Each structure stands twice: as C-alpha cells, then as structure tokens.
Amino acid sequence: MQISNASQRASLPALQTIVEAILRSIRNIIHLDSATLIIIKCFDDSIFPPKLVKHTAASPVQDISQIFVDRLEVDLKKIYENFLTSIRR
Asked: Three-state secondary structure along 2-23?
C-alpha cells in the first residue's frame, strides 16, 4: 500500500501539532523537589552521631536541591574535621 506525497504532506502539520502538544505536556510534568530527607551516619558515632536532616520548601520558588547540597556539605566537613581530630589524638 502506497501513500501519495500529497497525503503525507497534509499529515505533517497534524503530526507536528501532536508532537508540540506532547512536548508541552512533558514540560508541565517536570517535577520540582519540595522536600529532602537524609540520614547521615558516620562509621564511628563518637566522631559524628547519626543525624536526620530534613527540609521542606517554604515556597514553590525555593531551591530545595541547592539547600540539600549546602547542608550536606557543611555536615560532611564536620565529619572530616572531627575524623582528623580523632586521628591526631
């Protein structure tokens, strides 16, 4: 079965409309984090006791991912510094 070129050309705008609608839908579905939760556990509780770290967005524009990374960095530096202190004793 062959489809004529004219028929194919006529269906291209309809296909393009469908693709654009799908892309709009995908953009609307993209999920933005609204909360984070992590448990930080060091191998030695005397160096850094287990800690539950959680944060919930105060507003939709708050960058939860960046807050998560910043807080994790601070806690990991504390673990590192405490570990070095324990080795030097």
From this structure: CCCHHHHHHHHHHHHHHHHHHH
Question: Alpha-carbon distance 59 to 43, whole Å?
Answer: 36
Structural domain spans, the chain = 1-30, 32-89
User: Tens digit of pLDDT for each residue in 5-32?
Assistant: 555 555 667 777 888 878 777 766 666 6
SS (H, E, C) the chain: CCCCHHHHHHHHHHHHHHHHHHHHHHHHHCCCCCEEEEEECCCCCCCCCCEEEEEECCCCCCCHHHHHHHHHHHHHHHHHHHHHHHHHC
pLDDT, tens digit (0-9, with 9 covering 90-100), for 37-86: 889 888 888 888 898 988 888 887 788 888 889 988 998 898 888 887 87
